[in-house]
Amino acid sequence: MLNILYSFGISLAIALFGTPLFIKLLVKRSYGQFIRQDGPTAHYTKRGTPTMGGVVIILASLAGYFGASAILERVPKVSGLLVLLLFTGMGIVGLLDDYIKISRQRSLGLRPWWKIAGQGAVGVAFAVLAINFPNQYGWTPGSFKISFLRDTSVDLSFAGHTLGVVLFVIWANFLITAWTNAVNLTDGLDGLATGASTMVFAAYIIVTLWGISNLCQPGQAGHCYTMRDPLDTAMVAAAIMGACAGFLWWNSSPARIFMGDTGALALGGAYAGLSIITRTEILAAVIGGLFVIIAASDVIQIAWFKLSGGKRVFKMAPLHHHFELSGWGEVTIVIRFWLISALFVAVGLGLFYAEWVVAR
User: Fold this and answer.
1) CA-CA distance, 341 to 164, in Å (whole number)?
2) How many whole angstroms separate alpha carbon 103 and alpha carbon 31?
3) Distance (Å, whole) CA 112 – CA 308
4) Are 3 and 212 within 8 A, CB to CB?
5) How many domains does the structure of the chain reveal?
6) Position 203 in a domain
């Protein structure tokens, strides 16, 4: 338990006290947010607010995980390192995107194909590495089986190892792309994505702690969990949660800094990585239900606009902008969406525990 507390505490302190220093640096260099012209007019006042705050989230999370490991003199395990690889790699892609937006003063950053290539390279590297490094029981960080509350009977290696690797890489990258885009779309109001992320990463601390308490023993099968390195995974989730909580102090309305694509892509990547490593890929869609709803609203808007010849379902997508244009205050939307996120987290954890109780 000390591992998790140290990891959380270090990252929280660094994000909380390091963010204002980073804000001063960004202001000095005039690295401010560029506001899209077709967005809500109320957002024009946010133009020039420092962005790329995801850098603080990433650095604080890394410091939390590695700092806790150093204090307790433990060697980091491969599962934690892989999630941090995905987390940091996606953050670097987002950082490049943010930098181009700021330096060229436009709402578009990296060219779409360059962005896809960068995310794809990080995602493929993570996926390939995740099905290697078996421990003494033969468990690898990732699994060829599609998972819900644990691995299901749907096995991607049904036609052999080589095809299984290809299918797993495709499946993992689908999840990574979906979650990075979902978190990115949610990051449209002060503190919305940061607060929701704090909750979902807290949920994964509980999931991994339960995995630690009920880990399969040698020769044991059935009602137990086959997570590889669950303690390290819990430390990563705690570090990212702490970083989000510390950053939220400065990102809540009125935000003094935005996380930008740097933070949104990093958090989405970490969430996807945790769902894969903990064998809860489909459960993640319940725990992160707010992200799913917001991403779905954008997909529905675009699809209906094209199919109906220009008609819209929402006044503006993603969903939070629809409520803005309906007259809701920004703080009201954020708080209510946080409550929705908390409800999804509770339902997801309830399903996770209920499956355990029913199957006993």
Assistant:
1) 34
2) 8
3) 26
4) no
5) 1
6) yes
